[in-house]
Amino acid sequence: MASHSVTRRDVLAAGTLAAAAAATHQAEAIVSQGPQQGLVESGTSPLKAYEFDLADVTIGPGPFKDNQQRDLDYLLSFDCNRLLAPFEKVAGIKPRANNYGGWENTGLASHITGHYLSSAAMMFAHTRDSRLLAKIDSLLPRMTACQKANGKSDPQFRGYCAGMPGSKAAFKRVLAGQIDPGNPKALFSFGLDGMWSPWYCIHKIMAGLRDVYLQTGRTEAKTILLGMTDWTRQFGDRFTADQMQLMLISEQGGMNEVLADVYSITGNKADLELAEKFNQKAQLDPLMRGHDILTGCHSNQYIPRVIGIARQYELTGKQKYRAGSEFFWRNVARHRTFAFGGNSNREFFFPLGDAYQQLTAGTAESCCTYNILKLTNHYFCWNADMESADFFERGLFNHILGSQDPATGMMTYYMSMQAGHFKTFSTPWDSFWCCVGTGMENHSKYARGIYYHNADTLWINLFIGSILNWKAKGLTLTQTTRFPQENSVRITVACSAPIKATIKLRHPYWSTPSMSVKLNHKVLATGKPGSYVDISRTWANGDTLELQLQTPLRIEPMKHHPEKVAILAGPIVLAGVLGDALMKKPIPYANGDQYEWANVPDPVNVPILLTQNRQNLAVDDWIKPDATEPLVWHTSGVGRPKDVKLVPFYQVAHERYVVYFDTITPAEWKKIRQQRQTHAAEEKKLDAITVDHLDTGSDASLAAHKLRDELHFARGTLAISTVQRGWIAGNSGGGFTFTMKVLPDTPMALMCAWWGSDSGARTFDILVNGKKIATQSLESLSPGHIKRITYPIPDRLTKGKSKIIVRLTAHAGNIAGGLFGCRVVKR
After folding, report:
1. Based on CB atoms within 10 Å of each CB, which residue in 33, 45, 77, 264 is the most buried?
2. Beta partners for 459?
3. Using an 8 Å Cβ cutoff, are 607 and 622 in contact?
4. Under 8 Å between Cβ of 441 and 115
């Protein structure tokens, strides 16, 4: 992980392998005294700033402490027998319980145990709660037993410790050279012997063992970790460079990072060489040359690979690794990040300038923000700059803080930006998505990013209530604040003897016109927002700093599409809350499918803002604070069709919301209102002749109409005039059927809705009760609009019947649809 342990920072010196080994031996000699870290921070690359160990920071009262406590309660409720079940099944040991549900009953089984080990270890470092150590101490011996059983049954699996079903058979094929160059993902992603992204899963387990060793000093975790490293080494030893690269096409988590950390524990150069063999050249080499190839790449595969070379830079001093990492970070942070700090849509990076089309129910996977903040820690340690501190704050205070359900402590997968949609949270035992694992970690390590230091300088980057123990200086610093719930911050110094040091207070760019700072009640000059306030002096026991932050409202237009805007108060993104219409239980909870509620219909009239072309209209003129509720505002006179209540996005949990508002001119609103009125009148007339209506965006409607999805069937949503419309389609000769009501003695017609911009290979037949009634080709029928076409149904197909079966069948090599809705109407 990024620069996070005491010995990694404090055992720098010459950067030799001997120094690394000596650091490890020193750590092991004193493990009984508490959590010890056996990592060398940097080989030939001294850093500008270093993180404090988690054990050096205690989180105080406030929203982060609340999240931390909920996460702690969740971690303590786990059954270790269920966590171990997949390991024991693979090892041939009879499990004492069943696997957990969701992804833990798939080819990714056992990944959550790795996350659990990391979370429990980091939470222990933060809280010193001995119950977490008891959990860890019950897991490690049985993982050791599984590791030994694997090696005893097959020498090729000496050191192996994981629980993916079928993984041993699959890896045996790989080690035998049975990799199909035309389809390498068959072995390393989905589909073979039930395995799913095996290196991803192995990385999580190894990272969990690493974190247990670093945070608790449990040497058994180190032993299992080194055994897994030795098992992994056979791939690097047996495979050619080309074979390794073929293997790395699929998702492998951060194998190149955790193996680099193994090197910093052992000082064994072979471990570093193995880490570098896990660098996927197709994605990493272009970054080192400053080439942007991110579009279309899987975000949560890409970021961990970059974290890996960032760590390798710290251990080797190879400038190409730093150059590639920094180029990637700047690209994502500056050009591919939404206002709340998340990136990607449905887990993929999208083209620059295309963000306005990516506001869907699949916006911003939480894992991606977890990982980009890890990379940001590296970036700050190298540069000690304001930009990365700002970026870290944005992601932490909006996305990470808002990714936990305050009612249950559960986690989000995607952070929906679909206007009028809602957050979907996991269930305790039947989801276990990747974002549940990283979510458990997110709330166990809130010390990350608050404080950094070098020999004589302390950076205070984030305003989070906390206590820092700067052991090297003999100084304790207490930061008292409930920010962002309040804007005052008090920092108190405690030390047994006067200490000379520089404190660098971050003066955020958003705190305008200026934050105020008092040292022992005397006002200090603060400089401009967006800079550090340097206070160099000899600090004495009882010295205090008093800060008063400013959090004015401001607007952030979306790049390349400035008519879409986010509203912020200081660093806090605000959301317009829209109630909970159609959010029946168990919404917004989901089990195995994190996308379970993506197609629930959204409100038609999500508020838009009448703010364009209105001279001298400052944000304070049309957003007013609530008279009684703190951190609540209301738009005033600009919302259409009505004004909206605004609250911090991180607080929204069980209601619909909008984050990116469309802004329009008065003339545009007049036109939109007229269109809506005309549309409503047309819909009223249409409803009068409608016998049955299939809503393709409603799961309930699709179920009621007995939709049968066949080979190559697809579904999705499309934003049309701020409204998400669901569609269904059959691809490459596939199709789908559904049932519709009819009147037996009345002429009937089928009315289908198509997206007027669809074109290409979209020719298909429309059948009723097995008889073709039409062939349709979609060739830009009405660009930018829904196009309804009516197809008469021959009377013989409905006579004496109350229902019909409708089928869309794609021609060879074509797509059937997408269908955006269907009605049976009186002809």
Report:
1. 264
2. 452, 504
3. no
4. yes
* pLDDT tens for each residue of 89-111: 999 999 999 999 999 999 899 99
Edge-first strand order for the sheet with 531-539 is 50-51, 451-453, 457-460, 499-507, 531-539
Helix residue ranges, H only, 217-344: 219-238, 241-247, 255-266, 269-277, 281-288, 299-316, 319-335
pLDDT tier, 713 (very low <50, low <70, confident <90, very high otherwise): low
Q: Which helix or strand (DSSP H or E) is residue 634 part of?
A: strand 633-635
Burial, 181: exposed, middle or buried (Cβ in 10 Å; 0-12, 13-18, 19+)?
exposed
Q: How confident is the model at residue 175 (pLDDT cuts 50, 70, 90)?
A: confident
Q: Is the separation of the CB atoms in 367 and 435 below 8 Å? A: yes
Which H or E run includes 477?
strand 475-480
* Pairing state between β 516-519 and 522-524: antiparallel
Instruction: Write down the mean pLDDT value for the chain.
Output: 89
Mean pLDDT of all residues in 460-486: 97
State the DSSP H helix or E strand holding residue 817, giving kind and residue range, or none if neither: strand 815-826
φ/ψ of 268, rounded to 5, equals -85, 115
CA distances (Å), origin 251, targets 13, 194, 294, 297, 755: 36, 16, 15, 11, 35
Nearest to 136 by CA among 90, 84, 85: 84
> What distance in Å separates the CA atoms of residue 774 and residue 650, rounded to the nearest whole number?
50
Give the integer Cα–Cα distance in Å for 247 and 241.
Answer: 10
Report the sign of the C-alpha dihedral through residues 65, 68, 72, 73, in that order.
positive
Which is nearest to 74 in space by CA: 119, 126, 140?
119
The pLDDT of residue 734 is 78
Decide: 198 and 108 in contact? Cβ < 8 Å: no
pLDDT of residue 675: 85
What CA–CA distance (Å, rounded) separates 732 from 716? 17
What token pair was written down for 269?
A: 């150069």
Beta bridge partners of 558: 561
492: buried, middle or exposed (CB in 10 Å: 19+, 13-18, 0-12)?
Answer: middle
Asked whether the beta carbons of 547 and 488 are under 8 A apart, the reply is: yes
Phi and psi at 677, nearest 5°, equal -65, -45
Phi, psi of 662 (to 5 degrees): -80, 135
Phi, psi torsion values for 642, nearest 5 degrees: -155, 165
Query: 109, 132, 52, 213: which is closest to 437 by C-alpha?
Result: 109
Give which of 433, 440, 434 is closest to 404, Cα–Cα. Answer: 440
With 90 as the cut, is the pLDDT of residue 677 above it? Answer: no
**Is 220's pLDDT higher than 90?**
yes
Q: Where are the beta strands (DSSP E) in 668-802?
A: 690-694, 708-709, 713-720, 723-731, 735-741, 748-755, 763-768, 771-777, 786-793
Q: How far apart are CA 420 and CA 722, in angstroms?
A: 9
Cα 246 to Cα 199: distance, rounded to the nearest angstrom: 13
The answer to whether 727 and 740 are in contact (CB under 8 A) is no
Cβ atoms 629, 448 nearer than 8 A: no
State the Cα–Cα distance between residues 604 and 683, nearest whole angstrom: 13
